[in-house]
Amino acid sequence: MRFSTLFVTASALTLSGCMSAGPVDPAISQQEAQQAYQQHPAVLQEFGGEVGGAVGSYVEQIGDSVAVHSGTPNAAALYDFTVLSSAVENAFAVPGGRIYITRQLMGLMDDEAELAFVLGHEVGHIAADHGQQRRAKAQQNSLLGALGAILGGVVGGGSGLGNLLAQGAQQYAQLNTLSYSRDQEYEADTLGLRYMGTQGYDTMAGASMLYSLGASTNLQARLQGQNTRQTPEWARTHPLSENRTARAQQQAQQMGTAGGMRNRDQFLSRVDGLVVDDDPEQGIIDGRNFIHPDLRLQFTVPTGYRMSNGTRQVSISGSSGQAIFSTGQYNGNLNTYIAQVYQSVVGQNSNQLRIPTPQQTTINGKRAAYTTARVPTQSGAVDLSVVAYEWGGDRAYHFATITQAGAGLRPFSSMVQSLRQISSQEAAAIRPRVIDVVTVRSGDTMQSLASRMAYRNYQLERFMVLNSLNQNSRLQAGDKVKLVVYGSR
């Protein structure tokens, strides 16, 4: 969450996911290109900004090299490739020729050929016009999508949260390509393999990339049980299966393009020093804690609840309710601030709600106020609570929670009481995690190298997934491997 975060803002961003390849229509219309161009700043804001410099130029170069084989006229000019500063492993395509890949997914990759496959896969989605085919079935996800599902029927339709979410859905309609059909995923795999193979890359990289994604997904499922972190629905990677990996391997062999370029050393030189996981500038999730060193704050979610850190808010969800943590402009009156939060959540319909006068309190030395309103919905009443904190200056912070009618803030009482200002020493101790490419020395083992990873648990498992290794792998002196270590701010 960045300091510029405003009140609760709806977002319907969803990501792409991808049959033997059939006929494709590679044309990119001027209207689609213009829409993609106009949406680009919103995508950057939603996903942490752009990773530019040498990394961004490198991805653009590799993307252009595979896109030219898509059949799209003037492909190098029409396709645009951007690296997003997101801690979620993903890549997605916008119909107008915009391809996005996250730094987290790049960190998982083992070589340039895997990068070429992923970029080719996304180009294939556009060339095969999958976005147009899926547009009618676009869905809204994320926590606020869930809020919309609950509050969409609040006291009339006019301009409430349902309308706010609808506006967000329209703004990002071209991006809603999650849940491609199995055949579309297969087709994009096939096209990606074809493009990269024509460029001279080893098409076996498709299968190795899919295998690594599957291994990472399985590990993340284990980690979520440990640290309550959850990848939001809109940010999950493409559906993975052993069948899909095996299919990509079989196709690479049939194409006769296995054994081509991998360019591993060149790729590793580009990702050396790349930030992975949460960027401290946006705050970090550490187990049940959210810590923002620049904003000097921390809070703790209840046991069993999950967090997702976005650029606009932190989303929290669990069996007894959902919540967001965000910030907004503050004029010195907490009651006014709380009223603004309610209006941002339910729109003008907030005037039709009975919102009790907020109660004043002090939480960890900060002035605070809170109240709970009963909200009627089509499926029954719920409690919408807001807790606001005066933090100094012209900004305040708040939690907005939804629980069953009658529960109020009880499921989140420990969380709202936990928000506190951290010391400068605590803030300085929060450092980014970065990739460090090292050369294996004589005597090094997977266990000894894994012990250098900047994690408190699952060090060996993380190391193996990061380097596409398994329990039977053997390292040799001179090999290059990736570690995740603490960097400097």
UniProtKB/TrEMBL annotation:
Enzyme class: hydrolase
Record-annotated membrane-spanning stretches: none
Claim: Cell wall biogenesis/degradation is one of the keywords in the record: no
Signal peptide (from-to): 1-21
Keywords in alphabetical order: Hydrolase, Metal-binding, Metalloprotease, Protease, Signal, Zinc
Domain LysM residues, every copy: 436-483
Record GO terms (molecular function): metallopeptidase activity
CDD domains xrefs: LysM (cd00118), M48C_Oma1-like (cd07324)
Top-rank taxon, per record: Bacteria
PANTHER family: METALLOENDOPEPTIDASE OMA1 (PTHR22726), METALLOENDOPEPTIDASE OMA1, MITOCHONDRIAL (PTHR22726:SF1)
Protein name as it appears in the record: M48 family metalloprotease
Organism annotation: Sphingomicrobium clamense
